[in-house]
From TrEMBL:
<feature type="domain" description="AAA+ ATPase">
    <location>
        <begin position="57"/>
        <end position="214"/>
    </location>
</feature>
<dbReference type="InterPro" id="IPR008868">
    <property type="entry name" value="TniB"/>
</dbReference>
<dbReference type="InterPro" id="IPR027417">
    <property type="entry name" value="P-loop_NTPase"/>
</dbReference>
<protein>
    <recommendedName>
        <fullName>AAA+ ATPase domain-containing protein</fullName>
    </recommendedName>
</protein>
<dbReference type="InterPro" id="IPR003593">
    <property type="entry name" value="AAA+_ATPase"/>
</dbReference>
<dbReference type="Pfam" id="PF05621">
    <property type="entry name" value="TniB"/>
</dbReference>
Length: 346
């Protein structure tokens, strides 16, 4: 039994348009686990923030990691811990969160996004320089202490893979003139921006890599199981689902590769199924069926481990890797023979 926040369904299945169904589903989506890596990143942001207050030189931080590891979740939680305050003279915004827009050919789109988030009614007007000056003026007026720029990889052109020079130069100038910490967040490919722009590189000596949960040794297994246990305690059911059971946890890691987004995705699908079936927990049946409802292009060779009492994690991972490698090899051989066929017409 769990702390009684959610009542037993008493075997009565819910429909997707029931209020209770929607409420419980939203609840799953909102669960955030403050795991050790989460705490480390959160505290680093807090430290950069605090030590930069009234300092002659602001510190900066770069947080990077694969898709779904939880970068946005952490920085959003940090932003949300500082409410905007309306005063008689204006709005106080202590922390500003901005998503760097895609296809950023010039600094203008980024500048206007920042201005828009600051509440500027004319966020699109002005030259790059004018917009930069307005950002600095508003930052002072709003008593801004920290900016978070998420999706930093959008400073790389998707088609050419070139770093967008004017935008990265503009950003470097902005961080200098604002003299408040600017936290950059993005996919690992954002590292190319630092390699390209030496001046920006020099301003970001502190970089943190956020990684998926591992399962290779006892310590990693324990951390992943604690993550699952905390999620389990937060699930909208009256009964515990035992997700942290060693065998079930190994199955969860196998299908999600320890990436919080994929863990959440399968739990959301399994929650829907359990609610519809009137079951007071997520069981292996719901996980088994949820697995089939989720498509991930990088998991085409994964078997469905749920319901298999003989599941062996390390064997299953090795088999999956072998199949993945054979698949990649056959794909590249196909590509070579197609190219050959085009050159030598029969
Ligand atoms: N600490 C956490 N606790 C619970 N769920 C989490 C946590 N971190 C991430 N998630 C889940 O994973 C999903 C993806 O997380 P998030 O959007 O933060 O990843 P990201 O690293 O920003 O990915 P991307 O690079 O694609 O933007 C979230 O919607 C959330 O459901
Ligand atoms: Mg993100």
């Amino acid at each position: 039994m769990k702390a009684a926040t959610f009542e037993s369904l008493n075997g009565k299945g819910l429909k997707y348009n029931d209020y209770e169904y929607k409420k419980r589903l939203e609840h799953v989506k909102k669960i955030v686990v403050e795991h050790p890596q989460y705490q480390e990143v959160y505290e680093e942001i807090e430290e950069v923030h605090i030590i930069s207050r009234e300092s002659v030189q602001a510190s900066h931080l770069y947080v990077y990691g694969l898709t779904g590891v939880g970068k946005t979740t952490i920085v959003k939680q940090y932003t949300d811990s500082f409410c905007r305050q309306l005063t008689e003279t204006g709005t106080i915004i202590t922390v500003l969160y901005v998503k760097v827009p895609p296809r950023l050919k010039t600094p203008k789109a980024l500048a206007s996004k920042i201005l828009g988030e600051m509440g500027d009614l004319f966020a699109n007007s002005g030259t790059d320089e004018e917009m930069g000056r307005r950002i600095i003026q508003y930052a002072r007026e709003c008593q801004l202490e920290l900016i978070i720029l998420d999706e930093f990889q959008h400073l790389i052109d998707r088609e050419t893979h070139n770093v967008l020079a004017t935008a990265s130069d503009w950003l470097k100038l902005l961080t200098e003139e604002l003299n408040i910490p600017v936290i950059l967040c993005g996919l690992p490919e954002s590292n190319a921006i630092f390699e390209y722009n030496e001046q920006l590189d020099g301003r970001y000596p502190r970089r943190i890599l956020l990684e998926p949960f591992g399962f290779g040794d006892k310590v990693q297994q324990k951390q992943f199981r604690i993550f699952l246990k905390t999620l389990d305690e937060g699930l909208p059911f009256s009964e515990i689902s035992n997700l942290s059971d060693p065998l079930l946890a190994s199955k969860m890691h196998y299908v999600t590769e320890g990436v919080p987004r994929y863990v959440k995705d399968i739990l959301i699908e399994a929650t829907k199924l359990s609610l519809k079936r009137g079951i007071d927990q997520i069981n292996e049946d719901s996980l088994h069926d949820a697995f089939h409802r989720i498509t991930r292009s990088n998991q085409i060779h994964a078997i469905n481990p749920f319901g298999d009492n003989q599941f062996d994690y390390f064997n299953a991972v090795a088999t999956k890797q072998m199949k993945d490698e054979a698949f990649i090899k056959s794909q590249s051989q196909n590509a070579i023979s197609k190219r050959k066929k085009r050159k030598i017409p029969s």
